[in-house]
Amino acid sequence: MSRRSTSTFRVRYGETDQMGVAYHANYLVWCEIGRTDFIRELGTTYAELERQGHSLAVAEATVRYRAAAHYDDLVRVVTTLRSVRSRTIAFDYEVERVEPDPASLAHATTTLVSLDAGGRPRSLPAPVLGLFDR
């Protein structure tokens, strides 16, 4: 699958330590920005999926850090749909510094699982599968 989405933003002061280096957990927040922008580009929002009773929870996340992001860096997250299965959707993320000096900052992956109202795994409903299989 080659569907991609790109999100660009600046590292905020509150995302950094006293040395101006972005805290490592924020990379997962940035992946969430990429993932929600990806879903929005499909023509819906994650909030709308939830209103329709479709819950997707992160079941697995990995991050491989390559370089540090700093306060006010311009960062780009390229989100790619890796796979869609009966109960899961997997994404890859490339986190890159655009300015001031371009660099690859991290590679991340997440796997989301479809849950029913009780929090148990369930098959992805046909409308959700259709959204990602277009």
Secondary structure layout:
Layout: E1 4-10, H1 26-41, H2 46-51, E2 55-65, E3 74-84, E4 88-99, E5 103-115, H3 126-133
Antiparallel strand pairs: 1-3, 2-5, 3-4, 4-5
Q: Structural class from helices and strands?
A: alpha+beta
Quote the average pLDDT. 93
| Spatial strand order of the main sheet | 1-3-4-5-2
Order of helices and strands: EHHEEEEH
Major β-sheet profile:
5 strands, antiparallel
Question: Per DSSP, what share of the residues sits in E-state strands of 2 or more residues?
Answer: 35-45%
Structural summary, described in words:
The protein has 134 residues and is α+β, with helices and mostly antiparallel strands. It contains three helices and five strands. The protein has a five-stranded antiparallel beta sheet with strand order 1-3-4-5-2. Strand 3 (74-84) and strand 4 (88-99) form a beta hairpin. The radius of gyration is 16 Å and the shape is elongated. The relative contact order is 0.23.
Characteristic terms for this protein:
134 residues, 5 strands, 3 helices, 22% helix
